[in-house]
Amino acid sequence: MINRIVSRTISTANNKLINNNNANATVQQLLSQIPQPQTLPIIGSTLALLLSGGSAKLHEYIDKRHQQLGNIFIDQLGPTKCVFILDPNDMRKVFNNEGKYPAHIYPEAWKLYNQLKNCERGLFFMDGTEWLVFRRIMNKTLLREDLETFYEPCRIVADNVTNIWLESQQTEVLNLHDILYRWSVESVTSILLGTHYMKNHKKLQPSITKLVRVMQDVFETTSKISLIPANFAYKFKLPAWRRFETAVDLALERANALSSMILDMHENGGGVLERLLENGISKKDSIRVMTDLLLAAGDTTAHTMEWLLYLLAKNPNIQNDIYRESLTVPDMSDPPALLKGAVREALRLYPVAPFLNRILPNDINIQGYDIPAGTLLILSLYSSGRCEKYFNSPEKFWPERWLRCDLGESMNYSNLRAAVAHASMPFAMGSRSCIGKKLAEAQMYVTIRMILNKFSLELLNTNNIEMVMRLVGVPSEPIRIALHKR
């Protein structure tokens, strides 16, 4: 009897193994049809990437591969094979097929850290039913509200920053990067608190300062550890892991402390936190939601703003046009069209997230190739945003290209609109699009308008500034800007 059970068990296991092997063989056969570069066993194209400048130049490496291999190709960077997609219609198709619970990949080191520390994180780290419940609540508050909801909190913070610059005797903005990190964290804090922000401004400053000091370390240490298997780095206690762990420990501790202060101060302030609580998020869960909002928005919005200031300072005619247009639109809640175009151009040229990823629950056909469910798909936003097929003069900072009229230079907006509808989507689309899109837009619209109303900008950098990858796309050297009072 026992022998028969053992024999049946072994037979069943062997059948499953055969089925799995057959399935894997089918997957590999399907993927092998997709264009791909020559790769080395085990490490794939990792050596080629290193010779091209390493992870800092990943966006340029992938862009060259698209030029060589077309709108879709498969490459292996390390142990994982990824399908890279350039065509905006294909990107839209991916988002339309991401399923009820869209799956995405985040850095291996973050995942391991959360497991080791038994750490519950915010929306970005959630999956499945938990993600869907929180996402629906946050959609009501962060995406379905009018932008005007966020303008006054952003105006208060922007006013503080520009007044400090007005009172300063220095022309050059020193430590612009650090200032923008603080600006971004303060803006999110103000949006969360509403009218109570100014009343508690002085109390909040020490906690904001402590958080800003460590935030950058999280992303820098994550970038440095990204080329090492996280389990290996942890097991052998490599210095890169120790620095990463220390940075995340401090950042979470300080972000949690700031979130707790916001929770204690929020009542009857009319801020976003109050509405999140009213819509069903518990006080305990609100801490982790706010913590991740502060950390994520602080980094991504700060860098986007840095790129936007760089482009405006580099193009004085455009900043003057935005200033003159803003004088004709006195309502702060109505951003000038050219300002909106400038923000879109900055996001097109320098998307802080040059790649988006998805793992689809079902098979999909892209460009005539059958791609099995579970394949890692990478959407090449940097390449699509700079592709001549979708944008005239793609390297040019040209806010007018987004206006709903023909402003010359042989540009017809009706044709442009159809071509670029999904060629530049820095906030993604679909049910897992960026939850902080409206927050970020409000911050930039209000702040740039206030800056240009008071100053003209001059770029002091003499070197050519390039984008390099430090987990997100950042300038190759600190941006130096001089302010001249109007």
TrEMBL record:
One Pfam match, given by its short name, reads: p450
A molecular function GO annotation:
monooxygenase activity
Q: Which cofactor does it need?
A: heme
Please state what the protein is called. Cytochrome P450 CYP315A1
The entry sums up its family as follows:
Belongs to the cytochrome P450 family.
Name the residues that bind heme. C434
Record keywords, A-Z: Heme, Iron, Metal-binding, Monooxygenase, Oxidoreductase
Q: InterPro entries, per this entry?
A: CYP11_CYP27_families, Cyt_P450, Cyt_P450_E_grp-I, Cyt_P450_sf
